[in-house]
What we know:
The complex is a heterotetramer, with 1 copy of chain A, 1 copy of chain B and 2 copies of chain C.
Chain A: E1 2-8, E2 11-17, E3 26-31, H1 37-44, E4 52-54, E5 56-57, E6 60-61, H2 67-72, E7 75-78, H3 90-94, H4 111-124, H5 140-153, E8 158-162, H6 170-185, E9 189-193, H7 197-203, E10 206-211, E11 214-220, H8 226-234, E12 258-265, E13 273-277, E14 282-287, H9 293-301, E15 306-313, E16 316-318, H10 323-328, E17 331-334, H11 338-342, H12 349-354, E18 362-363, E19 366-367, H13 369-382, H14 399-411, E20 417-421, H15 429-444, E21 448-452, H16 456-462, E22 465-470, E23 473-479, H17 485-492
Parallel strand pairs in A: 3-9, 3-10, 7-8, 8-9, 14-21, 14-22, 17-20, 20-21
Antiparallel strand pairs in A: 1-2, 1-4, 5-6, 10-11, 12-13, 12-15, 15-16, 18-19, 22-23
Chain B: H1 9-12, E1 20-25, H2 31-46, E2 50-55, H3 62-75, E3 79-82, H4 87-98, E4 102-106, E5 117-120, H5 123-137, E6 142-148, H6 154-167, E7 172-179, H7 184-197, E8 201-206, H8 211-221, E9 229-233, H9 237-244, E10 250-253, H10 256-271, E11 283-285, E12 289-292, H11 296-306
Parallel strand pairs in B: 1-2, 1-3, 3-4, 4-5, 5-11, 6-7, 6-8, 8-9, 9-10
Antiparallel strand pairs in B: 10-12
Helix pairs in contact in B: 2-10, 5-6, 7-8
Chain C: H1 2-21, H2 28-53, H3 61-78, H4 83-107, H5 112-131, E1 136-137, H6 144-151, E2 153-154, E3 157-158, H7 159-177, H8 179-189, H9 191-196, H10 201-227, E4 229-230, H11 239-249, H12 261-280, H13 288-326
Antiparallel strand pairs in C: 1-4, 2-3
Amino acid sequence: MAGVSKRFPGVVALDNVSLSVGAGEIVALIGENGAGKSTLMKILGGAIARDNGTIKINSEPVEIRSPREASALGIEFIHQELSVLDNLDVAANIFLHREPTTAGFLKLINRKRIYSEADVLIHKLGLDISSRTPLDQLSLAQQQLVEIARALGAGARIIIMDEPTSSLMLSETRRLLEIIKDLKRQNVSIIYISHRMHEVEEIADRAVVLRDGKNAGTLQRSEITHERMVRMMVGRDLKEFFKGAAHERSSTTNGNGFIVRRLRTIRYPNHTITFDVAPGEVLGIAGLVGAGRSEVARAIFGVEEALETEVSLDGETLRITEPQDAISNGIYLVPEDRRLSGLIVDFNVRENISLPNLESYSSAKIISRAKESKAAAEAVKAINIKTPTPEMRAANLSGGNQQKVVLAKWLTFRPRVLIFDEPTRGIDVGAKAEIYELIRNLAAKGVSVIVISSEMEEVLGISDRIAVMHEGRLTGILNRAQFSEEAVMRLATGTEG
Amino acid sequence: QQGIHSGGGGVGAGGAGGKHKLAFVTNNASDFWTIARKGTEKAAAEIPGIEVEFRIPSDGTAAEQQRVIDDLLAKGIHGIAISPVDPVNQTQMLNRASSGALVVTQDSDAPQSNRVCYIGTDNVAAGRQAGELLKEALPQGGKIMVFVGVLDAANAQQRYQGLKEALNGSNVQIIDVRTDNTDRVRAKSNAADTLVNNPDIAGMVGLWSYNGPAILSAVKEANKVDKVKIVAFDEEDPTLAGIKEGAIYATVVQQPFEFGYRSMELMAKYLNGDKSVVPATKQIFVPTIAVKRADVDAFQQKINQLRGRS
Amino acid sequence: MKKELGIFILLIVLCIIVSIINPNFLLSINLQNLARQIGAFGIFSIGLGLVIITGGIELSVGSMMALLGVLLSMTLTEYGYGAAVAVLASIGLAMGLGLGHGLLITRLNMQPFIVTLCGLLFYRGLARFVTDDETKGFGAADYESLRFIANGNLFGVPMPFVLLLVIAAITWLVLHRSVYGRYLFATGRNSEAARYAGIDTKRIITLTYVISGALTAISGIIFAFYTNSVSPANHGNAYELYGIAAAVLGGCSLRGGEGSVVGILIGTALLQVLRNLVNLLGIPSSLDFAVMGAVILIGVMADQIFTERRNRRQVALMRELSAREAK
Amino acid sequence: MKKELGIFILLIVLCIIVSIINPNFLLSINLQNLARQIGAFGIFSIGLGLVIITGGIELSVGSMMALLGVLLSMTLTEYGYGAAVAVLASIGLAMGLGLGHGLLITRLNMQPFIVTLCGLLFYRGLARFVTDDETKGFGAADYESLRFIANGNLFGVPMPFVLLLVIAAITWLVLHRSVYGRYLFATGRNSEAARYAGIDTKRIITLTYVISGALTAISGIIFAFYTNSVSPANHGNAYELYGIAAAVLGGCSLRGGEGSVVGILIGTALLQVLRNLVNLLGIPSSLDFAVMGAVILIGVMADQIFTERRNRRQVALMRELSAREAK
Ligand SMILES: Nc1ncnc2c1ncn2[C@@H]1O[C@H](COP(=O)(O)OP(=O)(O)OP(=O)(O)O)[C@@H](O)[C@H]1O
Ligand SMILES: Nc1ncnc2c1ncn2[C@@H]1O[C@H](COP(=O)(O)OP(=O)(O)OP(=O)(O)O)[C@@H](O)[C@H]1O
Ligand SMILES: [Mg+2]
Ligand SMILES: [Mg+2]
């Protein structure tokens, strides 16, 4: 691809960007949120049209006008936003539009083949389910794996992966990286977008960096280091992560703080979960995919029914059956699935940010536009949401910036308990540091913070204590002194605890 | 009470080109009105100085008729012959209309209103006629079922009333009335269900024009042509064919052509100052005719002519 | 705004054409008739529009009007209650029915289509049953105030239209400026995310059906006195279709979360002007449906084509601009 | 499957109750009548169901049937073409109209509701115009083969029902076992994602409207010969509602992406049994709508409550189990 440009109303998403991939090469495409990575790939994948530039495959200029044409050229795209169909089963998703058919006018699907081949594919990815499972019964991570299986099954020459690991935990990520290396050996080209620098360090042959829609440089295999990438992405040196993180705080609540006792969720009714978070403490919750962490968060917040639980905050027992009960007690949840539950993509940034707190921007139930806009503008500035104006539709924001909008919603509040479910999913390194700082500041103000995260680095860096879950069970709680990757993994895989 | 037309031809004749603008407003769309239309067309051709407009309110409701009237008045109409869907309660509307134009009711009357005259069928009498035909067809008596589109229409109620009057005290007994909301599929399945549920049914009466054919085909399919006497209203083709082959005993027909022609004629005369055309009763009944097997051929010929068929 | 603009232009063009062909269109009496119709149809259409914005549907308005109409007549003429009592009872009943719909939909998770379809059937049946299939009217007795609401004028403006304007103004404020309105859009767009934001989506949805019920009752009273009689089998038949069509023409999306009060008003006006013009232009009655269908189709089509062409032109312009910049 | 089960149980319970109260229900002649109705209504309902699965809607079926019906009569009786020609022309025309809908929806991005609403108005108007509001019939002339399709029996089974079974079987294969069906579900649930997968969603949607047109034509021919005459103003009125209701009762979601052929069949059967039972049980005609509404509501409600209770019971069971384990 050479000289590619793309404008959206109000934004120049790409300005004269070039990118090349050799056969069997793994190219990492990195950059801050909103740098234009997804847009560039959508152009290659035929999902959107470019304004300028050329695309060549084997030095032949090609026109890619639709995903179908991309597919015909051997380009498969794993989207940043899930594009699986939850009314079909796993196999149907994997083979969508490539179904083996029996001959005949009706084009009947060869079901035997589809299921057996799908089973093979998903097991290769370490997904331990039947390919007949309806997709709506899978967790986000499992759906992500299905989408990856789909691209792999297509036998493509070029596979684009837009943040494929953002909702995967360590072991799945490892397996995926192995598979990518395997594909490389089979001479498949990979374009890999990720905000996780160590993944890039591990697999990329070359890293192409975008900044503000322009090429900011290229790093060869030998040059790919964490610092160089970050410097190139943000155009400056970044202060150290997790600096001054968790000093040991009192982890005894003395009846104060946020206490959850005997929480049993519908999905894992045989296990009770009990933990507490002191005011000013950050409790990390770690675990493998599907360990039931999100379920716990949803049950506490009242979106999902808990079979049984006792929740108290500063000594006061709470009854939470609906989210508004939680919110009125100062308990908030930043959910993991931003497009489904985190924000309303058709609302603009301002409306999304003000939504949970609308009453406070209104008098006599009539919204004061001035107050609302001011609060939104402040929030946009506070966590640096990259948007030309708060009036931009959230759907038009880049993935990371959408996530920031989800976070921004709760910043205008005075929370007492804040639960983050995968807060930095898809967020660039620079913004991550800002979010960590934000979490620390919240804690410093006496908020009890719970951070559910699948990123080992993140849990270890941000938490004062770490609760680890395995298949719905709380296998242990580690104090700062006991922190280590091995300790977490042992509990997370259930080999201990 | 006195509308602008009360001054005789003077005001009324002031219309476009000195012509009287007359309108004929039906209650819904059906073949019946096609024949009436022929009558109005004949009137328009024969009577000098009138211009005739034919309006069919599409959904057959009082509201729809009111808008048609409102629009006609806005257009400066001089005379309206209307078949009110709901006479009792459209009185006000008719009065309002008659303060702007000459109003004549046809087909169904609104006696409480300021309409100048009614031209049409006496539906109670028509019902009675149907009742007499049934008694004639069923000398032994028996159970009968009545079918109609909607029962809250005035002509349905009046026919039903006449039917009941005529059968009162006889050994012909009405079991029930089934309605179909003018859906012919429903009309036929209503008849079919009745045949299933009342194996001993002796007669079936269709109060609205399409009920006859619907009953006929249900009866034929159930192979009960000999066992069930059918009395229908109006002159749909299958009804006439049914009479011809003896499957339908008789049908009571109105003369819509006369409605069309005579209402236009009356309004023209009235607007020209001749008020003697309105009788003291303010009602002109166009009698209904019973068509049986013997008269069906002649009738068919006449009706074909009116419909402009060969 | 863009969405309403196209249909608004269509409306204006139509009015101009009609008044050129037949200047009677502009007679104050015709405009009054038209305004009265727009008023009566507009009021319940707004309610329907709100329901559509929640992502729901309300099919029972026509039947509900029939039921309310016959009951209104019976309370007034047969049981001899006063006008105020009868009106309040009507509105109260309709709100109760709306509440029922809302609760069935939110508490029992039933599909709005099914709930209100059952309403459509049930209320119609009930209306026919309580009246024994007899048309109920208000005769010539004078319910001055009620007649005034349906047939009177205020400074020459028909009362239903005045009522519509008042109701539209209030609804506009509520929908586009108030917290409730924002919640409504949020719920319609993505009820899951709305719930996560702490919105009691069930309450919002239920409330909307109640409001729709109240507006249906007001329209129903106007229609009842406009026709002065209520035929239980026909009154209000297919009015839900008019309401839905007005809302959809005015930019409400049946997938929820989209729509505006102004759009609904324009949609209603368009439908009524179409009905009016068929009569004024002397188009054969048999063709009136065809004309309505064709005009709406052509209008919306033209709008769509223009929008698309404009977009394409913008894209081309941008391409040019960036090409020039690149040099 | 779960979704259809509830409504299926309702259907069975209803049939049992009716046949206990009135054993005539089980008479072969009644079952034949019923099957004939189910056949005629079921065929176009399947088409409508497919459209609903794409996330669209088709409101014009009733009007289309009226138009096709009068044209069928005219080609046969007035222009004297043969039955085969007339039938093919009918189906061809309907497919053409469906194609038109599909193209307007997919190429011009118009809302299905608006396009087919215009169809509803336009075709009805056209039917009335070409016939000059006159009812068209087939007289006594014998179109043996056509009459057989509508009124005949094959080994005692009414032809429309036989046709329905054949069509349902084919549609079942296509919808639940073929590539096309899979694309249809994908398109209905998330057309963007389907597009990303390389599916030509526009073609799929257009094709579905064409199929719906063809099925409407078949139903239309059956209805025309069932009544033996077609009143342009009334024929097929509100049939779209029956079709949509059947599909929705049978588990199709108006948001698209959900539904099954078996469900649509059960939904159709339920509606027809309800119509039949009103006559058989001698329920006053004025109450028939009320009965239909009430039975559907109660049925769906019971289903919903049972499902919920079952879920809750499961939860309770789990609770107990785990409590026991905890000891
Ligand atoms: N449809 C659209 N309309 C308007 N602006 C858009 C649209 N899609 C993307 N943008 C803008 O284009 C820019 C680039 O977005 P893109 O999604 O390519 O970023 P990204 O590099 O993938 O970021 P992230 O890491 O957060 O996913 C952003 O400023 C975004 O707001
Ligand atoms: N609707 C559903 N039906 C059945 N099982 C489900 C459903 N949703 C989630 N699950 C399963 O429940 C388990 C717990 O999911 P949950 O999202 O709570 O876990 P998690 O620890 O947050 O994992 P993740 O990292 O995937 O978010 C997973 O195994 C998932 O497959
Ligand atoms: Mg991106
Ligand atoms: Mg999770």
